[in-house]
Design a protein that fits this description.
Structural class: mainly alpha
Strand content: under 5%
Largest sheet: none
Order of helices and strands: HHHHHHHHHHHHH
Length: 286
């Protein structure tokens, strides 16, 4: 009887938790659903009722998407090109530099390495708003205010989380494999790229996805650093989707937002299992 009561309590608790998480999921999905539906409605009907579903009168198909590609005096594809370049290069730099730094921190174990590690951890708790004005002046002085150089700034801001995750994973790697590679004549560089880096694959994928999502969706840093009259990423492009006298085509804006979030949603859906594996591996090892 006691066992049956425990099973019933567990079943009831599981049902309640499932219902709670379903409600939370619906709350999170609702804004995306509204963006999708409004991107298929004409601008007048969006102004009349944002939450109404498209009908025969309000439905315009993909006309908003075509308008969004050419709306305003700055082409969407140009903004998308800058976003892709900045996101890919920034993520690549973070993965390469931070994985090497984490390997050095774990294997060298000097006071300098420990100090550098704690400095990176400290950078995670410093709010961006505390340094953004100083950063703007520094970026201008060092000529880091272009799409080709701003990945260096992203490397600095993304290093804290990346090094934290890489260090946790590297601590669990067997040192004997690296010693065997050294006996075979591998130097530190060859040992890292031929032996250590392939073993870091789970964390590389999880860190890469997290950093890619962050850089792709970031608005404030490019807005402060870049010359927005010449260089615009997609988040900045959305803000400037205005016509004459400040009018906003909500249908085209929703379509552009949908085109902006769709690639990163697809990437996340296909790679979410690697995020969980990488975070778990970095958390329990060492």
């Amino acid at each position: 009887m006691a066992k049956d009561n425990k099973i019933k309590k567990y079943s009831t608790g599981s049902t309640i938790l499932t219902a709670v998480f379903v409600v939370i999921c619906l709350v999170w999905v609702m804004p995306i659903f509204e963006v999708v539906t409004n991107s298929l409605k004409s601008n007048n009907y969006i102004n009349l009722d944002v939450f109404a579903l498209p009908n025969a009168e309000s439905f315009v198909g993909f006309a908003n998407y075509l308008t969004g590609l050419t709306f305003g005096n700055y082409p969407f594809l140009k903004s998308a090109g800058y976003s892709v370049f900045i996101s890919v290069v920034s993520t690549f730099l973070i993965l390469l530099c931070c994985s090497m730094a984490a390997w050095y921190i774990v294997r060298v174990q000097s006071k300098f390495a420990q100090f550098f590690y704690y400095l990176c951890l400290f950078s995670m708790i410093v709010p961006f708003q505390m340094v953004m004005f100083t950063l703007t002046n520094t970026a201008g002085s060092l000529y880091l205010n272009t799409p080709w150089t701003i990945p260096v700034i992203y490397l600095g801001f993304g290093a804290g989380l990346a090094i934290f995750m890489f260090v946790g994973f590297v601590k669990g790697l067997p040192l004997e494999i690296e010693e065997a590679a050294a006996i075979d004549g591998c130097g530190p560089v060859r040992t890292f790229f031929n032996v250590v880096l392939p073993m870091l694959k789970p964390t590389l994928i999880s860190v890469g996805i997290l950093e890619l999502m962050w850089v792709w969706n970031d608005y404030l840093l490019p807005y402060l650093v870049l010359d927005i009259t010449e260089y615009r990423t997609i988040p900045i492009h959305v803000q400037y989707l205005k016509g004459s006298y400040g009018t906003v085509d909500l249908g085209a804006t929703m379509a552009v937002i949908m085109m902006a979030i769709l690639p990163i949603i697809i990437v996340y859906l296909f790679c979410q299992k690697y995020i969980i594996k990488g975070v778990a591996a970095g958390a329990v090892k060492g």
